[in-house]
Write a structure and sequence with these properties.
Blueprint lengths: L38 E5 L8 E5 L5 H15 L3 E4 L2 E5 L3 H11 L5 E2 L1
Parallel strand pairs: 1-5
Antiparallel strand pairs: 1-2, 2-4, 3-4
């Protein structure tokens, strides 16, 4: 792999002795499913009156969050998104989401 692909924030350096030092990002470990305390709620704020099911409290990597969001979206048959530890599922699917999470091993999940 070319060295310039590893450093997207550095465009050009006039220093002939400059050597890019790659800082490894700390990998976030996902908490075990049994210990996750996910909260499920209905949210209508800032959505033009449309209801969404909001799942908060996920502690883990973004890849695991995206995988869980995809699972919920597919099982509910609706769209949604996931970012910053929150999963948004379109529509009011609180009970269905709770049932899915409990079957997947997220025992401490609850509707608030």
């Amino acid at each position: 792999m070319n060295d310039w692909k590893k450093r997207p924030d550095i465009v050009y350096s006039t220093n002939p002795d400059y050597h890019f030092q790659e800082n490894e990002k700390s990998s976030i470990e996902t908490v075990a499913k049994e210990k996750q305390q996910l909260r499920i709620q209905l949210d209508k704020r800032n959505r033009n009156g449309k209801a969404v099911t909001l799942i908060t409290g996920f502690a883990g990597s973004d890849d695991d969050l995206q995988a869980l969001a995809k699972l919920l979206k597919v099982r509910c048959g609706v769209g949604g998104s996931a970012k910053e530890g929150e999963i948004i599922i379109q529509g009011d699917h609180r009970q269905k989401v709770l049932d899915i999470l409990q079957k997947e091993g997220y025992a401490k999940s609850r509707i608030i």
